[in-house]
UniProtKB/TrEMBL annotation:
SMART domains: TPR. This is Uncharacterized protein. Gene3D superfamilies: Tetratricopeptide repeat domain. It holds the Pfam family TPR_1. One of its GO terms (biological process) is post-translational protein targeting to endoplasmic reticulum membrane. The keyword Repeat applies. Keywords: Repeat, TPR repeat. It comes from marine metagenome. GO terms for molecular function: molecular adaptor activity. GO terms for cellular component: membrane; TRC complex. InterPro entries: SGT, TPR-like_helical_dom_sf, TPR_rpt.
Length: 167
Protein backbone atom coordinates (compact mmCIF):
# COMPACT_ATOMS: atom_id res chain seq x y z
CA UNK A 1 0.00 0.00 0.00
CA UNK A 2 1.42 3.35 -1.02
CA UNK A 3 1.63 5.64 2.02
CA UNK A 4 2.63 8.81 0.20
CA UNK A 5 6.32 8.41 0.98
CA UNK A 6 8.82 8.86 -1.83
CA UNK A 7 10.37 5.69 -3.15
CA UNK A 8 14.14 5.56 -3.33
CA UNK A 9 15.90 4.58 -6.54
CA UNK A 10 16.72 1.22 -4.95
CA UNK A 11 13.03 0.66 -4.08
CA UNK A 12 12.03 1.53 -7.65
CA UNK A 13 14.62 -0.88 -9.11
CA UNK A 14 13.43 -3.63 -6.76
CA UNK A 15 9.79 -3.10 -7.81
CA UNK A 16 10.64 -3.07 -11.50
CA UNK A 17 12.81 -6.19 -11.16
CA UNK A 18 10.09 -8.01 -9.19
CA UNK A 19 7.44 -7.16 -11.77
CA UNK A 20 9.78 -8.08 -14.64
CA UNK A 21 10.60 -11.44 -13.08
CA UNK A 22 6.93 -12.18 -12.50
CA UNK A 23 6.05 -11.58 -16.12
CA UNK A 24 9.24 -13.08 -17.57
CA UNK A 25 8.73 -16.40 -15.83
CA UNK A 26 8.57 -19.24 -18.37
CA UNK A 27 5.08 -20.55 -18.92
CA UNK A 28 4.16 -24.18 -19.28
CA UNK A 29 2.76 -23.58 -22.75
CA UNK A 30 6.08 -22.53 -24.27
CA UNK A 31 5.00 -19.06 -25.37
CA UNK A 32 7.81 -17.52 -23.32
CA UNK A 33 10.41 -19.58 -25.20
CA UNK A 34 8.87 -18.72 -28.55
CA UNK A 35 9.12 -15.03 -27.63
CA UNK A 36 12.76 -15.48 -26.56
CA UNK A 37 13.48 -17.19 -29.88
CA UNK A 38 11.97 -14.22 -31.72
CA UNK A 39 14.16 -11.81 -29.73
CA UNK A 40 17.29 -13.73 -30.79
CA UNK A 41 16.07 -14.04 -34.38
CA UNK A 42 15.61 -10.27 -34.63
CA UNK A 43 19.25 -9.65 -33.71
CA UNK A 44 20.62 -12.31 -36.06
CA UNK A 45 21.34 -14.95 -33.42
CA UNK A 46 19.71 -17.75 -35.40
CA UNK A 47 21.31 -20.68 -33.58
CA UNK A 48 20.09 -19.36 -30.23
CA UNK A 49 16.69 -18.69 -31.75
CA UNK A 50 16.48 -22.31 -32.93
CA UNK A 51 17.32 -23.48 -29.42
CA UNK A 52 14.53 -21.43 -27.87
CA UNK A 53 12.03 -22.45 -30.56
CA UNK A 54 12.92 -26.10 -29.97
CA UNK A 55 12.26 -25.71 -26.25
CA UNK A 56 8.99 -23.93 -27.03
CA UNK A 57 7.89 -26.71 -29.38
CA UNK A 58 8.57 -29.28 -26.66
CA UNK A 59 6.50 -27.34 -24.10
CA UNK A 60 3.79 -25.71 -26.16
CA UNK A 61 0.11 -26.43 -25.84
CA UNK A 62 -1.90 -26.83 -29.05
CA UNK A 63 -2.96 -23.45 -30.36
CA UNK A 64 -1.84 -20.54 -32.51
CA UNK A 65 1.65 -20.38 -30.99
CA UNK A 66 2.46 -23.92 -32.07
CA UNK A 67 2.45 -23.25 -35.81
CA UNK A 68 4.18 -19.93 -35.31
CA UNK A 69 7.03 -21.57 -33.38
CA UNK A 70 7.56 -24.14 -36.13
CA UNK A 71 7.44 -21.42 -38.78
CA UNK A 72 9.88 -19.19 -36.95
CA UNK A 73 12.28 -22.06 -36.29
CA UNK A 74 12.10 -22.91 -39.99
CA UNK A 75 12.83 -19.31 -40.86
CA UNK A 76 15.85 -19.42 -38.53
CA UNK A 77 17.10 -22.57 -40.29
CA UNK A 78 16.64 -20.82 -43.64
CA UNK A 79 18.72 -17.87 -42.43
CA UNK A 80 21.48 -20.40 -41.70
CA UNK A 81 21.03 -21.87 -45.21
CA UNK A 82 19.73 -25.14 -43.75
CA UNK A 83 16.81 -25.24 -46.16
CA UNK A 84 15.86 -28.91 -45.79
CA UNK A 85 15.32 -28.44 -42.05
CA UNK A 86 13.48 -25.19 -42.78
CA UNK A 87 11.12 -26.96 -45.18
CA UNK A 88 10.37 -29.64 -42.58
CA UNK A 89 9.38 -26.97 -40.05
CA UNK A 90 7.34 -25.04 -42.62
CA UNK A 91 5.56 -28.30 -43.48
CA UNK A 92 4.71 -28.77 -39.82
CA UNK A 93 3.50 -25.16 -39.46
CA UNK A 94 1.29 -25.54 -42.53
CA UNK A 95 -0.04 -28.85 -41.22
CA UNK A 96 -1.12 -27.05 -38.06
CA UNK A 97 -2.52 -24.03 -39.91
CA UNK A 98 -3.27 -24.62 -43.61
CA UNK A 99 -4.02 -20.89 -44.04
CA UNK A 100 -0.58 -19.71 -42.87
CA UNK A 101 0.36 -17.67 -45.96
CA UNK A 102 3.76 -16.61 -44.65
CA UNK A 103 4.77 -20.23 -44.05
CA UNK A 104 3.88 -21.08 -47.67
CA UNK A 105 5.90 -18.12 -48.94
CA UNK A 106 8.93 -18.94 -46.83
CA UNK A 107 8.76 -22.60 -47.81
CA UNK A 108 8.64 -21.44 -51.42
CA UNK A 109 11.79 -19.40 -50.87
CA UNK A 110 13.61 -22.42 -49.47
CA UNK A 111 12.48 -24.56 -52.40
CA UNK A 112 13.69 -21.84 -54.79
CA UNK A 113 17.12 -21.67 -53.13
CA UNK A 114 17.37 -25.45 -53.58
CA UNK A 115 16.49 -25.05 -57.27
CA UNK A 116 13.05 -26.63 -56.79
CA UNK A 117 11.20 -23.89 -58.65
CA UNK A 118 8.04 -25.85 -59.47
CA UNK A 119 7.47 -26.55 -55.76
CA UNK A 120 8.32 -22.92 -54.99
CA UNK A 121 5.73 -21.71 -57.51
CA UNK A 122 3.10 -23.98 -55.95
CA UNK A 123 3.84 -22.51 -52.53
CA UNK A 124 3.70 -18.95 -53.83
CA UNK A 125 0.42 -19.78 -55.59
CA UNK A 126 -1.00 -20.95 -52.26
CA UNK A 127 0.28 -17.88 -50.40
CA UNK A 128 -1.30 -15.63 -53.03
CA UNK A 129 -4.59 -17.54 -52.91
CA UNK A 130 -4.67 -16.84 -49.16
CA UNK A 131 -3.67 -13.17 -49.54
CA UNK A 132 -4.05 -11.71 -53.02
CA UNK A 133 -2.24 -8.52 -51.90
CA UNK A 134 0.90 -10.38 -50.78
CA UNK A 135 3.44 -8.40 -52.82
CA UNK A 136 6.50 -10.46 -51.88
CA UNK A 137 4.85 -13.70 -52.95
CA UNK A 138 4.31 -12.23 -56.43
CA UNK A 139 7.89 -10.98 -56.56
CA UNK A 140 9.37 -14.32 -55.46
CA UNK A 141 7.10 -16.28 -57.78
CA UNK A 142 8.30 -14.02 -60.59
CA UNK A 143 11.88 -14.97 -59.75
CA UNK A 144 11.01 -18.67 -59.91
CA UNK A 145 9.19 -18.22 -63.22
CA UNK A 146 12.25 -16.42 -64.60
CA UNK A 147 14.52 -19.22 -63.35
CA UNK A 148 12.57 -21.80 -65.37
CA UNK A 149 12.38 -19.62 -68.47
CA UNK A 150 8.75 -18.49 -68.17
CA UNK A 151 9.65 -14.85 -68.67
CA UNK A 152 6.20 -13.55 -69.59
CA UNK A 153 4.73 -14.95 -66.38
CA UNK A 154 7.68 -13.51 -64.44
CA UNK A 155 7.02 -10.06 -65.90
CA UNK A 156 3.32 -10.32 -65.00
CA UNK A 157 4.21 -11.16 -61.41
CA UNK A 158 6.77 -8.36 -61.18
CA UNK A 159 4.20 -5.92 -62.56
CA UNK A 160 1.65 -7.08 -59.98
CA UNK A 161 4.21 -6.76 -57.17
CA UNK A 162 5.06 -3.21 -58.26
CA UNK A 163 1.38 -2.32 -58.47
CA UNK A 164 0.83 -3.59 -54.92
CA UNK A 165 3.96 -1.92 -53.50
CA UNK A 166 5.08 0.91 -55.79
CA UNK A 167 7.76 2.27 -53.45
Amino acid sequence: VFTGERLTAADTRHCVNSISMKFARPTADGQYYCDKGWEHFNVGQYEKAIGFYSIAINHIQPGPWEGQCYHRRGWSYAKLKQHQQAIQDYDHAIGLDPEYDLAYSHRGQSHAVLGEHQQAIQDYDQAISLDSAYELAYSHRGQSYAAIGQHQRAIQDYDRAIMLEPD
